[in-house]
Amino acid sequence: MDELILRVARLVAEEPARAGDRGGVAGTLRRLCSAARRDLSAAGVGVSVMAENGMRGVAAVSEPSCEPLEELQFTLGEGPCLDAFASRRPVLVPDLFDGAMRRWPGYAPALHDGGMRAVFAFPLQIGAARLGALDVFRVEPGSLTEGELRDALTFADVAVTTLLDGQERAGPEAVADGLDEVMGHRAELFQAQGMVAVQLGISLVDALARLRAYAYVEDRALGEVARDVVARRLSFDSGMS
All domains of the chain, ordered by start, with CATH? Predict the structure, then answer.
């Protein structure tokens, strides 16, 4: 096995568990994020899982304050995580003011307001299969060094192996251990999207846009809004615009 892979795998294995850690794959990915945050001198690291069918969600973050930065990308439908997944290439933004404000007009200002000045996203992929992305956030502008870039790519490779191994153990019809909550939230979003489309007589694409807009205006996670729609605590056919 490659020495870099062995080194990163050792860092993840040595990362202590925390109270509240989920088990299985999610717990391993949380430790991977924390190890990467230290190794890459980052303010935060997150891993999001995504699939070709649109299922997506935040799988793990190095610390709770990082989760809103990850989740907001799905709320707004823009950001480095989504771009890395779509392009199959790393998205490297050493300075948010160098084009990112135009590239992500909703996300980049929010990221800046959260104290971040640089972000780097790495696709989680093997062959033609795409699994998600790993995001690295920094509070100071500046590029990753050659060694840091190499390490970040290796953390992404280890995340891929973790996801694949977890899925293999779970079986083809099941969700990898620890990720059932993440995928459950995405299923709720699809259901809520359909309900809003029926309520307003609009397309599914427009329904998702309405859900995202509501979540952004109300400063809530998209998954929370979807849960309220599915539970019929929130309806979009009662005079909402």
Answer: 3-170 (3.30.450.40), 180-230 (1.10.10)
Q: How far apart are CA 37 and CA 32, in angstroms?
A: 9
> In the block, which residue shows the tokens 């050792």?
10
pLDDT in tens, 128-150: 888 899 999 999 999 999 999 99
131: tokens are 């699994």
pTM tops 0.90:
no
Residue 111's nearest CA partner among 152, 146, 154, 78 is 78
